[in-house]
Design a protein that fits this description.
The protein is of the alpha+beta class and 130 residues long. The two termini are 26 Å apart.
Length: 130
């Protein structure tokens, strides 16, 4: 399964369970890419603790939900972004200035667009959360 579908499944599962006011959810399959995305979401307090469960196949994540996500989704195609053009993408994908974050895959790993902008590095847009 391509990484894009794994990430889409992750965001869809989280959003659906958040909208149903669930306290936790299970996401299948688990991947290192998804784990990095979840770490960024946890760092910015969109989700609580998460753990990877080894089921002998692809694995799965158990994620604690904090009811703080209104919308999340992937960005396709994956646009390249320069270090000085984050504001343009923020206007396009987020509802208001400084509300939410855009996930960016950079040479330094996956991070929010705020971190990438502060470090002065560009990358590839992955998804958005608000």
């Amino acid at each position: 399964m391509p990484a894009l579908n794994v990430l889409s499944n992750l965001f869809t599962t989280i959003h659906n369970n958040e909208s149903r006011r669930k306290k936790e959810c299970i996401v299948i399959p688990a991947s290192r890419f998804s784990s990095d995305v979840l770490r960024v979401m946890q760092k910015h307090r969109y989700i609580g603790e998460f753990e990877q469960i080894d089921d002998g196949r692809t694995g799965k994540f158990r994620i604690q939900l904090l009811a703080k996500i209104n919308k999340c989704g992937i960005i396709t195609p994956r646009f390249s972004v320069r270090k000085d053009s984050y504001l343009r993408w923020e206007r396009r994908f987020l509802p208001a200035y400084n509300m939410g974050l855009i996930l960016v895959s950079t040479s330094s790993g996956i991070m929010s667009h705020h971190e990438a902008q502060a470090q002065g590095i560009g990358g590839v847009l992955i998804g958005y959360i608000f």
